[in-house]
């Protein structure tokens, strides 16, 4: 059984102290609302009520300690899913989102509240989906992590174990997304997107093929030129070559003339 129980105690001004237990459970799992009453206490009679209208869903009668289940009192939502034992503990099987709410236990003879359970049934979490964002380019990495049909969850990005960013989803949404923008991926760490609620989580790791790593050649070494720039380069390059050849020829001729002058001077001397 997957559940997390937090306890709180507060004072009931008329009937003394009773407990309040906050219970979280994943949809489809079973949960036990434990009372731990002795058999003698159970025979005095207790009743379980559900929801703001306090529908009677189960009770142990005072006369003979007989267990009764009233599965149809509240639109039949609990049909074939309730079990009450003589200790007063109530088991709900195959939990549903609609089972969320308040469950109160009352002593039938004294009308004393014995306990209150506040149950939250969480939907099973989907695995996040990571896709390239439309803002991705050769010089930066932009990805999107999305989850569908969720509520009361957080969606977060992590670099290794380091938290990067997060969003909270309170109301039900068909799709919720959070983006991650990086210049490049540090291949020393794994990047992951995590969706979680109070009792469970789902993780999806970022594939390094989606974005270039920081160790890869920088995008500035790759040039994609427009038509005009290509034409200019094709025209300028030959001109630069011709100019270079002309300079070399001029330099060679100048050296030959200088050598000839020196030779003529030596002959005259």
Notes on the structure:
The chain is of the alpha+beta class and 269 residues long. It is built from two helices and 17 strands. The protein has helices spanning 39-43, 227-268, and strands at residues 3-12, 16-26, 31-33, 46-50, 55-60, 67-69, 82-84, 90-92, 101-107, 112-122, 129-132, 141-150, 153-159, 162-169, 173-182, 191-196, 201-205. It has a seven-stranded mixed β-sheet with strand order 1-2-10-9-4-5-6, with no helix packed on it. A four-stranded antiparallel β-sheet has the order 14-13-16-17, with no helix packed on it. Strands 3-8-7 form a three-stranded antiparallel β-sheet, with no helix packed on it. Strand 4 and strand 5 form a beta hairpin. The longest helix has 42 residues, at 227-268. It is rod-shaped.
Q: Separation of termini?
A: 116 Å
Q: Please give the radius of gyration in angstroms.
A: 39 Å
Uncertain spans, ≥5 residues at pLDDT below 50?
A: 1-17, 218-227
Count of runs of 4 or more consecutive helical residues: 2
Tell me roughly what share of residues is in helical segments. Answer: 10-25%
The overall strand count is 17
Q: Strand-and-helix sequence, N→C?
A: EEEHEEEEEEEEEEEEEEH
Question: Into which percentage range does the β-strand content fall?
Answer: 35-45%
Mean pLDDT: 77
Q: Biggest sheet, open or closed, and with what strands and sense?
A: 7 strands, mixed
Approximate shape: rod-shaped
What strand line-up does the widest sheet have?
A: 1-2-10-9-4-5-6
Alpha-beta content class: alpha+beta
